[in-house]
């Protein structure tokens, strides 16, 4: 709407105003006049808010301060008033400047009121033009909902129909934009989720397709091997053609060979079984049961154990086939294909065979570390075989090293065994180690920090090293340089000794107590040790400034370190886990779980394939290096002291397996517990 008049928009349009001005002009004036009054633009009809006015300057209170008598003023106003007259302007109470205090709550209310008034003023100033050209300014969102509602309530009575239509059109468009924006944001997030989920599932599908293809190729390879084996076997018909000249022994051999052929035939994979998966194992028919299980009980036991560890074997299989799974299958010549398959599949086949080789532990002999039936402190700390596996030494807290003849112990008909020789130390013994070159040379470490070299043939000390300041936990002979000895102690040092000198030849400074130390069995200058910092440290003794590698992964102190081979290490910790490492990789390859170890030294040993360790439930656990779960365990019997009248309950026992040793190149392991009971066990 356009105005025909050009009068003073700020003056009062009363009786003296010109009647020649159109109705629309008067409406415009009224609207603008009302706005001026509402927004506090000077005028006699201005309605001020007295709630936040200063009684002195009659303006909005600035820096509100309250007096001792309870009245509030601007800070500058009350200060000037008190300088002129030391009385309250409201009640005339005698005051000084020390009697006024900040009124924080009123300051916040005044700030909010100023913000609201400013928003209303901005909305009023956003009206431009008049009549049909009047439009609303840009951003109304700066106003609170109450302020916007007040504006609409005040101005709605003065809006014409075209004004309302324009406002409705603008608000409708704004509403649609806001709804579209909200909907787009919500669905965009949903779309991102579905896109990521689809990508993830497609990657899983592609991975599964690769794995299925790999498994099918390996199945075909194994079936070809089985067919070749079957083709090379003599036929039953040929063996049944017995000659009249056959002796009874030859006939028995023929019958045995026929039985073996039947077993081989029963283990052949039939074409109808290739796609059946676990259904064949889970729901075999009665004839199939008789054929597959009745013919070979050993195979049935192995199958049962394989399925018990099936998840472990799945991980082991894909780990051994990871290279081909990652690179994919490419057409190759027959020789290349055979070599590629053997590099991965043969490794897994070997793991499967070694896993199923043994079923349990069978005791061969039992010994007692202490013959004193009244002595309850008979913990065995260390067991070690000599270089020829003929003698083994047992040492512990009774301060004695007892050397037994393995052959005599095994073949002795009575269950009372006496040591071949006995050596007495001045302190409790923590560890012993045999020399790999000199038959009767033995080293020990004790609780006083002393490292002693013994002649096991005579039982006398040949050398004593006393440089450790605290308890010495571990000692080890180097298998390559047999003159070199390493020891680790609570003084956070690993010391190196030589049989040719009376003092240490080198010292490694660790940052925490050293609990175990071990040389690489194929190197004269590489050494690993575990400490209370939860790490395994691997050093080259030719450069002792820094470690070659620090293996991190345990949550508590590392109590034992053993070499599985020249590149693989197994460590034990009081976090109830064993971990296997490769010296070229700082991350652990596998964790072995099942035993309990939270506070004691429980022993650790390996023969290169199997790992044995003790547990605080008085049991020995045996693991295979390719699987995380134990193969089997052996529980020690609870021993009652002669002084105990009643039998102790199982849960009251604090007994634990304290030392373990493997007899190399054999399936025999020796273990001892905290009661001084030593068991010689055979894997069968």
UniProtKB/TrEMBL annotation:
It is found in: Nucleus. One of its GO terms (biological process) is proteasome-mediated ubiquitin-dependent protein catabolic process. This is RING-type domain-containing protein. Residues 280-298 have a biased composition (Polar residues). Residues 1-18 have a biased composition (Low complexity). Pfam families: WD40, zf-C3HC4_2. Gene3D superfamilies: YVTN repeat-like/Quinoprotein amine dehydrogenase, Zinc/RING finger domain, C3HC4 (zinc finger). It comes from Odynerus spinipes. Residues 191-232 form a coiled coil. Residues 1-27, 272-298 are annotated as: Disordered. WD repeats lie at residues 465-507, 551-591. The keyword Heme does not apply.
